[in-house]
Design goal:
Layout (H helix, E strand, L loop, with lengths): L38 E6 L14 H8 L1 H4 L17 E6 L7 H17 L3 E6 L5 H12 L3 E5 L17 H7 L9 E3 L13 E3 L1 H20 L3 E7 L21 H9 L5 E8 L10 H20 L10
Parallel strand pairs: 1-2, 1-3, 3-8, 4-5, 4-7, 5-6, 7-8
Helix pairs in contact: 1-8, 3-4, 4-5, 6-7, 7-8
């Protein structure tokens, strides 16, 4: 992988491409072919597919900056081990593309994720708006075939009437392109209208999750996913706006950050192969709580990966 990660389009002097700090102060990826990292973090500063408020292009910066609040902890509660002792992570910086030419983002991001997987690693990707998940899934499907999806969101993003580049149509296209194993996929936290007849995913809407709690939700997830390879896509507006005001299309009555973290933590044992956190828009945030929520969800996922490797024994602190 070249240092500027450009694989298709000339992206000299890209807007929003500079990296202020890495996520959790993980080492900066210098050379993919010589890296011993197991997980590669990437930022995608793109929000030209939004239907609401723009600003998610600053999500990767916000998430990385907020992660500094957790660096000092060592072993993060409630885990009983330090992540660095069991999982090697590097930050590749931001995927570059020509601002104003969305296809360059599509091409460069898919190629970037493909290179990560061809190197035997998995991806943790920060958006950007939710459209970025579509090129990521294309890369994953090329490597693994159709993957199971655990999708947290206020919206199903399966709408068919949008444009080619639209953060509300990505799962419509992903299903039609055969990227998703819908029989083993779920959407969690949904609380906006969608066409229920023929809907390809099992839906655990926000009212159901809030009423039944994390344990019942996890049981439904595990029954659905089984031993399939599973990709997690977390739109931050899956959280209630009281926990995540900094997003483009907030919807009331969502999940609490506590519920979301308990669900992510409970994914231990599943065959997790990748995650993205999208739609963080720091301009609408208050005291960085949305960026912190996104960073915390991503870090919790990394702890789950380490626990899946056998780290920590009894993985929760007593």
């Amino acid at each position: 992988m070249s240092e500027n990660h450009t694989t298709v389009a000339d992206a000299e002097m890209p807007l929003y491409g500079a990296l202020g700090m890495t996520f959790m102060q993980f080492p900066l990826l210098r050379n993919l072919s010589h890296s011993d990292a197991e997980v590669i973090v990437s930022g995608v500063p793109y929000d030209m597919s939004t239907s609401g408020r723009s600003g998610a292009r600053f999500g990767p910066e916000g998430i990385r900056s907020a992660s500094v609040n957790m660096v000092w902890e060592g072993a993060r509660w409630p885990w009983n081990f330090a992540l660095d002792d069991h999982l090697k992570v590097e930050d590749a910086g931001n995927v570059l593309f020509k601002h104003g030419e969305p296809q360059t983002l599509v091409d460069n991001l898919e190629a970037h994720i493909s290179q990560i997987m061809d190197a035997g690693k998995t991806a943790l990707t920060f958006g950007g708006d939710h459209f970025i998940t579509l090129p990521v899934l294309r890369a994953y499907a090329k490597k693994h075939g159709p993957v199971a999806i655990i999708h947290f969101d206020a919206h199903t993003d399966t709408y068919s009437g949008g444009t080619k580049y639209d953060h509300g149509t990505l799962f419509h296209h992903a299903v039609n392109e055969g990227l998703v194993d819908t029989e083993h996929s779920l959407q969690i936290g949904i609380r906006t209208a969608y066409e229920t007849d023929g809907h390809p995913f099992e839906v655990l809407d926000a009212a159901w999750v809030n009423g039944h709690g994390p344990e019942a939700t996890l049981q439904r997830i595990k029954d659905r996913v089984g031993d399939k390879q599973v990709y997690v896509s977390f739109d931050i507006d899956g959280l209630d706006p009281s926990f995540a005001p900094g997003t483009g299309t907030p919807v009331s009555a969502g999940l609490s950050i506590d519920t979301a973290l308990k669900i992510i933590r409970g994914l231990r044992g599943l065959n997790l192969i990748g995650m993205d956190v999208v739609e963080v828009a720091p301009a609408y945030d208050h005291a960085d709580i949305t960026s912190l929520a996104g960073a915390t969800l991503a870090l919790e996922y990394l702890y789950v990966l380490a626990a899946n490797k056998g780290a920590g024994g009894d993985y929760l602190s007593k």
